[in-house]
Task: inverse folding
């Protein structure tokens, strides 16, 4: 049975990530994890997972202005009309 972590949704695994940081950043992370009631590992994993998801969502999506969206829809509609006018065998 695979167990899911309640905070991060991550499954138990044996992969490892090593980090080096300054004492000040480590203390900040330790304090934040403690305030959240989770281990440092769970805190870092949760934060990294959320940032990774957001980074991928940002890089895999495209925001259009209303004008650009209208131009896209017009182009798409013209393309569809052109394709539908081609005779099929």
Result:
């Amino acid at each position: 049975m695979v167990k899911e972590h309640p905070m991060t949704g991550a499954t138990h695994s044996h992969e490892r990530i090593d980090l080096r940081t300054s004492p000040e950043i480590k203390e900040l992370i330790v304090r934040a994890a403690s305030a959240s009631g989770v281990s440092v590992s769970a805190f870092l994993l949760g934060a990294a997972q959320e940032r990774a998801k957001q980074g991928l969502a940002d890089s895999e999506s495209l925001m259009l202005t209303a004008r650009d969206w209208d131009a896209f829809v017009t182009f798409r509609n013209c393309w569809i009309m052109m394709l539908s006018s081609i005779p099929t065998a």
Q: What stands out?
A: The domain at 1-63 is CATH 1.20.5 (Single alpha-helices involved in coiled-coils or other helix-helix interfaces). The first helix runs from residue 23 to 36.
